[in-house]
Amino acid sequence: MAPLLAQATTNLKIGWGIIGSYARHPLVTAMDVRVVQEMAGPDRFYCGIGASKILMNAIGQGDDTKSRPRTNVEETLRIVRATLDGKKVDFVGREYIATAPELDPNAEVPDWKIPLYVGGGGPRMMQTAGELADGLITPSLTSPAFYPYAIEHMRRGAEKANRKVEELDLGATLIASCGPDRESGRRGARELLGRYLINKARNIRGSGDVLFEKAGLSPAELMPVVEAIERGGNKVIPDVVTDEIMDKTKVIAGTPEEVADLIIEHRDSGCRHVQLELWGDDREAQIKLIGEKVLPRVQ
Question: Could you give the residue ranges of the DSSP H alpha helices within the chain?
């Protein structure tokens, strides 16, 4: 899909946020990145890499005490970057073995850099972003209060590599929906928030706890919601995912004015790269509404 989007557009920024590092060998990831890089041209493509707890669970890695998600992501970053830079790759790690020849200096390939991001919400993964990547993408339940926490852990990683955290990007893929009125504008985000609450509460306990804590969500408030959705399915989400929960998590939802104000709040709290994960009915109309009435206020 990404190469097709790149081919059909000229200005649209295109990003993978994220590619699971367990899903494919890093050399395959690097080859896929090269394809989109060529189709998109300079300064249009961003590559996010993360372990993906959902994928780890699906392949039987999530409950394995021997799994090494941070090591997996680190090795993927090193192999992908070296390959894209045209360097000879002769890598033997704990997770991967990779061998590739040095790129021929006369080869006709893009010579611009592709920013590599780490997707993660735990301290160790955020430190990896600071040490090895060009930026960090925080989880979908990120509230404004989470960004200073993320920046501090990025700083620790950056210092290990003699880098400055101020030179790195901090982004978030945020749950979003927009409509002409408050009720319709919040409907899609409410549904997706319910799904993510289950995901984070059940599958990503460590980082999920901090996400909830920073948003002001206590286990006593959260777990009855998760249990109700697990019993009743998505149909109960409108009843149990309350406006108070939506307001605490700061999902990007509501009228164009509300959406713009929320984006600005995230941006002013440290998020330099806001990405909207739109959900709900008629997403094409939502995109148009955001383009016409939200972007002029936030740009």
Answer: 2-8, 26-40, 53-58, 69-84, 123-132, 147-160, 182-203, 205-215, 219-232, 237-240, 243-249, 256-268, 283-289, 295-298
150's tokens: 């993320």
Q: Other CB atoms closer than 10 Å to residue 296's CB: what's the count?
A: 10
Burial category of 231 from C-beta neighbours within 10 Å (exposed 0-12, middle 13-18, buried 19 and up) = exposed
Task: Find the helix packing angle between 219-232 and 182-203, rounded to 10°.
Answer: 100
Domain ranges of the chain: 1-178+256-297
Cβ atoms within 10 Å, residue 107: 7
Which whole number is the average pLDDT over 103-116? 92
Q: What are 58-84's pLDDT values in tens digits?
A: 555 555 556 789 999 999 999 999 999
Please report, for residues 37, 111, 114, 173, 269, the alpha-carbon distance to residue 42 in angstroms, rounded to integers and kept in the order given: 8, 9, 8, 22, 29
**Separation CA 138–CA 207 (nearest Å):** 10
Structure-block tokens of residue 289: 């509404």
Q: What local confidence, expressed as pLDDT, does residue 99 receive? A: 97
CA distances from 7 to 14, 18, 47, 209, 288 (A): 11, 21, 17, 41, 21
Decide if domain 1-178+256-297 falls under CATH 3.40.50.850. no
3-state secondary structure of 172: strand
Helix, strand or coil, per DSSP, at residue 122? coil
Q: Is the pTM above the cut of 0.85?
A: yes
